[in-house]
Amino acid sequence: MEFKSFKIGKYTIEKPIIQGGMGVGISWDQLAGNVSKEGGLGVISAVGTGVYKKRAYVEKTVGKDERPLDALNFYSYPALQKIFDNAREICGDAPLAANVLYAQSEYNRVVEDACKAGANMIITGAGLPLTMPEAAKNYPDVALIPIVSTAKALRILCKRWKKTHNRLPDAVIVEGPLSGGHQGFKYDECFMEENQLENILGPVVEEAKNWGSMPIIAAGGVWDHDDIIKMMEIGADAVQMGTRFIGTVECDASQVMKDIIIDAEEDDIKLFKSPVGYPARGVRTQLHEDIEKGTAPKVACISNCVAPCNRGEEAKIVGYCIADRLSDAYDGIAETGLFFTGANGYRLQEIITVKELMNKLMHGEKSQSEVS
Fold first, then answer.
1. Which of 44, 293, 349, 364 has the most CB atoms less than 10 A away?
2. Does residue 340 belong to any structural domain of this protein?
3. What does the pLDDT read at residue 366?
4. What is the pTM of this model?
5. Which residues contact 322 (CB under 8 A, 6 or more apart)?
6. CA angle at 13 for the pair 368 and 92, rounded to the nearest 5°
7. Residue 205 falls within a domain, yes or no?
8. Nearest-10 crossing angle of helices 29-37, 77-91
9. CA distance 111 to 102
10. What is the mean predicted confidence (pLDDT) over 61-85?
11. Which of 227, 234, 225, 223 lies closest to 199, judged by CA?
């Protein structure tokens, strides 16, 4: 199968590979910039930018571990702007996207921040983003890409967008329940055969036809060249991949996180409860043992990171603050960090460059000499 370039809104993506937006600090300037440089679509996570470069762009922090105070600092615009500027130095004018969670606090403000910072596209999941066009209304050239898990969700979203803003998605990501981080299904639903990516993709492709023409991007468990072909045969125009890019030299994640995922066995990767209200997938580590024993770090809502958490009330129920624990992962603190990965994370065995990975994905698991 020949892989072709495709368009999202006004922007052409040379290779049908979108790098997943992973926060806190997994996909920032180095990873996203290099993916776009190599012809894919690099995606900068707008989550937790306040911890970028040792909190250098934050006005107010709390405590000796310098937790960013409130959403204004946890979702820092100056840091996001710096991340985009650095990525642009790597990829030039190639398209760059920002991932902004619908569940996060101050969603509309952060979408605007990302547009100002230079995002050509906004990707939003962690909830059905019915108000996404309102958040980006001042930036008509910025493409909007919602994440859905069912054809019904796409139908509801398109009806709402058409009615309120006379707009439709520029592309849509269909995410199955093998992805890392937060899922679009309830815990038990993640294991149902009918909800697996290969089964939900086709109905979404058909539903999209009712609304004109929009690229369909398959995500959640896509690992290699053969998986990409499989998704395209079902009807996808491109794929989104997150975990595979953690195993790159340029990935912004700490070396501790990369090592934890490389060392993980299949049985170490689990779905966990999250303060966001959706199950989340990651590696079971010391943190989860401490949560069960009641010895995990005390929950104190400093950053007000996600609206569903209700200023730490949900965090207390599940036993951890997601902002603090993801920040610890970014800082390379193995004992208290939260390390998200997709279900295939145990297959990660090596660290290679983004260029090498893109070649493998485009041509199969071949040596560089075979594709040069």
1. 44
2. no
3. 65
4. 0.95
5. 274, 275, 276, 305, 306, 309, 315, 338
6. 85
7. yes
8. 30
9. 10
10. 95
11. 234
Range of the domain at 244: 6-52+75-259+346-363
pLDDT surpasses 50 at 119? yes
State the Cα–Cα distance between residues 172 and 166, nearest whole angstrom: 17
CA–CA distance, 192 with 267 (Å, rounded to integer): 19
Helix (H) or strand (E) holding 192, with range, is none
* Residue 145 in tokens: 């890409």
Count of beta carbons in the 10 Å neighbourhood of residue 295:
9
**Average pLDDT over the chain, rounded to whole?**
95
370 located within any domain = no
Return d(Cα 273, Cα 222) in angstroms, integer: 23
Tokens of 236: 């996808």
CB contact at 8 A, 107 and 100: yes
What angle (nearest 5°) sits at the alpha carbon of residue 76, between those of residues 73 and 79?
135
DSSP-derived letter for residue 178 is: T
What pLDDT band is residue 219 in, cutting at 50, 70 and 90? very high
Residue 63 lies in a domain: no
Q: What's CA 59's distance to the chain center, in Å?
A: 26
Residue in this structure with the two tokens 């993801």, named with its chain if needed: 326
Looking at the structure of the chain, the number of domains it has is 1
pLDDT tens across 243-263, in order?
999 999 999 999 999 999 999
Distance, in Å, from the CA atom of 232 to the CA atom of 194, rounded to the nearest integer, reads 19
DSSP strands (E only) in 16-95: 17-19, 42-45, 61-62, 67-68
CB 172 within 8 A of CB 216: yes
pLDDT tens digits for range 152-168: 999 999 999 999 999 99
Helix (H) or strand (E) holding 293: helix 286-293
